[in-house]
Design a protein that fits this description.
This protein is α/β, with parallel strands linked by helices. Helix 4 (81-89) links the parallel strand 2 and strand 3. The protein is globular. The strands form 4 sheets. The chain has a 7-stranded mixed β-sheet with strand order 1-9-8-5-4-2-3, sandwiched between helices. A 3-stranded antiparallel β-sheet has the order 12-13-14. A two-stranded antiparallel sheet has the order 6-7. It contains 13 helices and 14 strands. The model has no long low-confidence stretch (mean pLDDT 97). Bound molecules: pyridoxal-5'-phosphate. Residues 53-55, 79-80, 82-83, 124, 150, 152-153, 173, 175, 186 line the site of pyridoxal-5'-phosphate.
Length: 366
């Protein structure tokens, strides 16, 4: 079996975790501060604020912007459910702009939804491929909107000569299977000193100094134990990303020309894909349906996954919620019916890659 994800931590993690365990300081402390400083430097921003997961990163970002009831946030309909849940948790209303061939929201579709209630746009860099941020930042600037990037899948990805997460507030997930993992964890990046300060307060019960509360906050803190797991991976992030990109290139080459199959084509200028997922489409013109293909590929020992089988609001619990506005998103609905993600993790061998190509080409192209 070739699994779709393999989690293997750099050896340096062991020593650093042991140091934390022996220090007796397990909660947020000096290693979180170090992790934040290195994460900010790596992403070219003034501040990185560590939190306990990617979902709370998004919630804290929206709260730092003072969003609440009646405020609309425009996001992608083709995303993990946390994007939507964070908007609802903050008390705001979610709107959905349709996506392009790169699976990310289109700036024109976002612009078409802007109205007097719109306060923020929340683009999602799906699968590790950055959105067209120049176009989206243009929409935001024209209408005075905040930008909260859902960069959960895109640690280290670059767009227009810099990292994602620098356009407003950047929200990263450090969940177990993400490209950089602390098991559970998150990070919020920004160049804005005032927002960074508010995020630090929100993360820690709204407390400026001991028992000096300025706002109603949360416990969204990350632990030093988690930071010890993350720091060595951050230092080796480029290595891991390069391995993912090499695997993707091999899959692109091997799967080119398979009838009915579309490989991810990051053709956008100045955007680097960090391949959290390598996602192909199995179209209506393929000899086999998507779900049937998924079953056959798995049966042949190649792990694969459907991210995501439905647009994010297409569940009973959201249909009844007045804060979830159902917008028409035909491209996202079509993508949800056609996508399959294949193994691209950094520990694939050349033999694994050949096997993935052989199995997928055999199943889809027969
Ligand atoms: C993983 C993920 C999140 C949430 O992150 P958690 O750390 O699991 O809370 C949010 N958005 C997207 C697109 C994700 O993939």
């Amino acid at each position: 079996m070739i699994p779709i994800t393999v989690v293997r931590l750099p050896g340096e993690v062991d020593e650093l975790v042991l140091e934390v365990l022996r220090s007796g300081q397990l909660a947020q402390g000096p290693l979180v501060a170090l992790f934040e400083a290195e994460f900010a430097a790596r992403h070219g921003v003034a501040h990185a604020v560590a939190v306990n997961n990617g979902t709370t990163a998004l919630v804290a970002a929206l709260q730092a912007l003072d969003l609440g009831p009646g405020d609309e946030v425009i996001t992608s309909p083709f995303t993990f459910v946390a994007t939507l849940n964070a908007i609802l948790e903050a008390g705001a209303t979610a709107r959905f702009a349709d996506i392009g061939a790169d699976f990310n929201v289109l700036a024109d579709a976002v612009a078409a939804l802007v109205n007097e209630r719109t306060r923020a746009i929340m683009p999602v860099h799906l699968y590790g491929y950055p959105c067209d941020m120049a176009a989206l930042a243009g929409v935001a600037a024209r209408h005075g909107l905040a930008i909260v990037e859902d960069a959960a899948q895109a640690v280290g990805a670059e767009v227009d000569g810099g990292s994602v997460g620098r356009y407003g507030l950047g929200c990263f997930s450090l969940y177990a299977t993400k490209n950089l993992s602390t098991g559970e964890g998150g990070m919020i990046t920004t160049d804005d000193d005032v927002l960074a300060d508010r995020l630090r307060l929100l993360r820690n019960q709204g407390m400026r100094a001991r028992y000096q509360y300025e706002i109603a906050g949360h416990n969204y803190r990350l632990s030093d134990l988690a930071a010890a797991v993350g720091i060595p991976q951050l230092r080796r992030l480029d290595e891991a990303t390069t391995a993912r990109q090499a695997n993707a290139a091999a899959l692109d080459a091997g799967l080119a020309g398979v009838a009915g199959l579309t490989t991810p084509s990051p053709a956008g200028s100045g955007r680097t894909h960090v391949y959290h997922q390598y996602t192909v489409r199995i179209g209506a013109d393929a000899a086999i349906g998507r779900d049937e293909a998924v079953a056959a590929i798995s049966e042949a020992g190649v792990g694969c996954g459907v991210y995501y089988p439905r647009v994010v609001f297409d569940y009973e619990c959201y249909r009844a919620d007045p804060r979830v506005v159902i917008d028409d998103v035909p491209a996202a609905v079509a993508a949800a019916a056609e996508v399959v993600s294949l193994p691209v993790h950094p520990f694939l061998t050349a033999g694994d890659r050949d096997r993935v190509v052989e199995v997928v080409a055999g199943v889809v192209g027969r």
